[in-house]
From TrEMBL:
InterPro entries in alphabetical order: Cellulose_deg_GH3, Fn3-like, GH, Glyco_hydro_3_C, Glyco_hydro_3_C_sf, Glyco_hydro_3_N, Glyco_hydro_3_N_sf, Ig-like_fold
Coiled coil ranges: none
One Pfam family here: Glyco_hydro_3_C
Gene Ontology BP terms: carbohydrate metabolic process
Organism for this UniProt entry: Mediterraneibacter gnavus (Ruminococcus gnavus)
Listed name of the protein: Glycoside hydrolase family 3 C-terminal domain-containing protein
Length: 751
């Protein structure tokens, strides 16, 4: 289809109308020109297609078609498995084709800055590398079925409090290293058809009007080719938005913004070419879908099985003292807790799926073993009920082991608002404590979208983190409990001991519509590891029913340049007695001391399945970016020459093998030359060290009393180090004119 040609035939009114939704879920059609409407739907972990236009909503309140609820991102991220996310994407893409949905609104990749964000369940990780890799796999999966995705919410939408107005105040290095890379990786590796801009402001400007964000970074730096749509109701000044690169307003403005666009073009404040570009980008995607329809059928039964298969690989075994798990079939198990009857398997808000079928542990128990159920507490809130507690304690007394199905009730976490604390309901904590006093092994199974404090952690023998595992979560949990499946999930976020330990604690959610990301790049484990802080469970942590040993760590080069790719390989052996999947994590640690850096950062990972006794060699690549940080002076990624440690870990805290590589970087970090450049920076830089000796020493000598840098002792050097060039004017005979000459000379010298 020649889209440019079509745009040429459109009237100004038709073009303006094309830049906002026709209704809650459709783009505008133009019958005169044969332009079809196209439908978009939430996302991300299932299809929330609302069939009736009049009851469309963005909070998951009204009816949607029956669909399959897959595990939410908090769970899928714990798989650390790119193939799994791809596979889930393919299934969702096929469902979209079957249902006539052109763009699935996801994945949601905002970084988990605080455990309190009400929407963390929908987000992948606190780590940008992991979030980016998994998002790219999911997108490639969905889009392999000729259905688009909308990666969201771009950018710095890390809380629900005041989400439609708050300004996230974030410095550029932190944006580039923490809050952007998930989007950047997805754009570079998967080219999502669309990007959804967020509600909030970023450093004072609404994301929907942010030209630097939507054009300079997204399109010019990363090469995004699709269209940007607004989050539902995120538009303020529509004309500014078009100029910034925000193409499609959703759901629309009842025509008010169409008129604003028309008027702006007529008055000349908006160039018609700019509008044409937005329309062209939207139509490219509309036609990409329309011209590649696939004949698919949506089998809810089959996809339910897929949801179960995925859920099994997302569960994280957090504690297994004295091998309390797996359970043995004839052991008498007390099955306690309302979540065994009503599993919490998805979060509230726009991602809420009208699920096909949700089996629960109580229904499944007889297929697995000898379990007796007592509710103990409700899954719906925090109400202590004496009768329920009494009954639970009685059933527990009669058992060999106790399995408590606990979790966060729906109202505790959802889109649209944040959590107030990090605790489970008191009624659950109290019962768990009482159960631990019976002298029988206690296993807690958790259903939650983000970390909880565990006051009973030392008194229970087993902890299974099921997260919000989708509609088949109960089947997956039972398979893990009874050892049908070996757990392989790893935490994609740190579980701090207390909320107060979290780096954003003093700056979340901000006040007066402003939130200061004062912790900078030290988000999640980057902070806890730097502070050597005790945590409940570290990033990357998770147990298995088998054991894995690592050996033979090799790198294919001991010295690399900025252009090289380093190949890291090692052997992984299953030394236990059960088949299992191991997640091998690769962290890089910068030893050059050239910049403030986290202790180590995840830069690759791989999943490997091994039979007992089996060994496989795994290989992971590292490119220059894996070593680099974002230098805001140079406006570029930079890794200083020097030594970097390659760490292979079972979590960010459990590094089991290490080796070193030397990076030779001819590209030296050059000081920015103006009258405030520090003399120390000029001394350190190979290009300017001679200049300091020849041209600056005569001035420095006036107050240090030496004629050459070599004569200066360490203390004298240190005293001069932090002096800006301009300070020579205060302490020497250098005047303004002379200072200007030095600056010009230095600039020439750098060329
Ligand atoms: C959410 C988006 C969602 C949209 C449409 C908004 O409230 O933030 O993630 O895609 O609604 O339902």
């Amino acid at each position: 289809m020649d889209v440019k040609q079509i745009v040429n035939q459109m009237t100004l009114e038709e073009k303006a109308a094309m830049c906002s939704g026709a209704d809650f879920w459709h783009t505008e059609k133009v019958e005169r020109l044969g332009i079809p409407a196209s439908m978009v739907s939430d996302g991300p972990h299932g299809l929330r297609k609302q069939p009736d236009e009049s009851s469309g909503d963005h909070l998951g309140l009204n009816d949607a078609i029956e669909a399959v609820c897959f595990p939410a991102a908090c769970a899928t991220a714990s798989s650390f498995d790119r193939e799994l996310l791809h596979d889930m994407g393919v299934t969702l893409g096929k469902e979209c084709q079957a249902e006539g949905v052109s763009v699935l609104l996801g994945p949601a990749v905002n970084i988990k800055r605080s455990p309190l964000c009400g929407r963390n369940f929908e987000y992948l990780s606190e780590d940008p590398y992991l979030a980016g890799e998994l998002a790219a796999s999911y997108i490639n999966g969905v889009q392999s079925q000729n259905v688009g995705t909308s990666i969201k919410h771009f950018a710095a939408n890390n809380q629900e409090s005041e989400r439609m107005s708050v300004s996230a105040e974030v410095d550029e290095r932190t944006l580039r290293e923490i809050y952007f890379p998930a989007f950047e990786t997805a754009v570079k590796k998967a080219q999502p058809w669309t990007v959804m801009c967020s509600y909030n402001r970023l450093n004072g400007t609404y994301a929907s009007e942010h030209k630097w964000l939507l054009t300079d970074v997204l399109r010019n730096d990363w090469g995004f080719e699709g269209y940007v749509m607004s989050d539902w109701g995120a538009v303020r000044d529509r004309v500014k938005g078009i100029i910034a690169g925000m193409d499609l307003e959703m759901p629309g403005s009842s025509g008010a913004n169409d008129r604003a666009i028309i008027q702006a073009v007529q008055e000349g404040s908006l160039k018609e070419e700019t509008l044409d570009l937005a329309v062209e980008r939207i139509l490219n995607i509309v036609y990409r879908y329309a011209e590649n329809r696939q004949n698919e059928a949506f089998s809810r039964e089959k996809d339910h099985q897929k949801a179960a298969e995925i859920a099994r690989q997302c569960i994280v075994l957090l504690k297994n003292e004295a091998q309390v798990l797996p359970l043995v079939q004839d052991e008498k198990i007390a099955l306690i807790g309302g979540f065994a009857e009503k599993p919490r398997y998805q979060g509230g808000g726009s991602s809420h799926i009208n699920s096909h079928t949700v089996p629960c542990a109580v229904q499944l128990k007889d297929q697995y073993g000898n379990m007796t159920y007592a509710k103990g507490f409700t899954a719906d809130g925090d109400q202590y009920e004496e009768d329920l507690e009494k009954e639970a304690l009685e059933v527990a007394e009669q058992s060999d082991k106790i399995a408590v199905f606990a979790g966060l009730p729906d109202v505790f976490e959802s889109e649209s608002y944040d959590r107030e604390h990090m605790r489970l309901p008191d009624c659950q904590n109290q019962l768990i404590e009482k159960l631990t006093k019976l002298g029988k092994p206690v296993i807690v199974v958790l259903h939650n979208g983000s970390p909880v404090e565990m006051p009973w952690v030392d008194n229970v023998q087993g902890i299974v983190e099921a997260y919000l595992g989708g509609e088949a979560v109960a089947e997956a949990v039972m398979d893990i409990l009874y050892g049908e499946v070996n757990p392989s999930g790893r935490l994609a976020e740190t579980f701090p001991r207390r909320l107060e330990d979290n780096p954003s604690y003093l700056n979340f959610p901000g006040m007066q519509k402003q939130v200061n990301y004062a912790e900078g790049i030290f988000v999640g484990y980057r902070y806890y590891d730097a502070r050597k802080m005790d945590v409940l469970f570290p990033f990357g942590y998770g147990l298995s029913y088998t054991e894995f040993s690592y050996s033979n760590l090799k790198i294919d080069k001991s010295r690399i340049t900025a252009k090289d790719t380093l190949m890291v390989s090692l052997d992984v052996t299953n030394t236990g007695s059960m088949e299992g999947k191991e997640i091998v994590q690769l962290y890089v640690s910068d030893k050059t001391q050239a910049a403030i850096r986290p202790v180590r950062e995840l830069k690759n990972f791989t999943a490997v399945t091994l039979k007992p006794g089996e060994t496989k060699t795994v290989s992971m690549e590292l490119d220059y970016r894996a070593f680099a940080w974002y230098d805001t002076e140079q406006k570029d990624w930079y890794a200083a020459g020097g030594t970097y440690e390659i760490c292979i870990g079972k979590s960010s805290r459990d590094i089991v093998m290490r080796t070193e590589v030397v990076l030779e970087n001819e590209k030296e970090k050059l000081p920015k030359i103006d009258e405030n450049v520090m003399i120390g920076d000029l001394m350190d830089c190979t290009k300017t060290a001679d200049y300091v000796e020849e041209r600056l020493m005569p001035y420095i000598g006036e107050f240090i009393g030496k004629t050459s840098m070599k004569e200066m002792d360490e203390m004298e050097r240190s005293m001069v180090y932090y002096m800006p060039l301009s300070s020579l004017r205060s302490f020497t005979k250098l005047d303004n004119e002379g200072l200007g000459e030095l600056v010009d000379e230095l600039k020439n010298h750098m060329r």
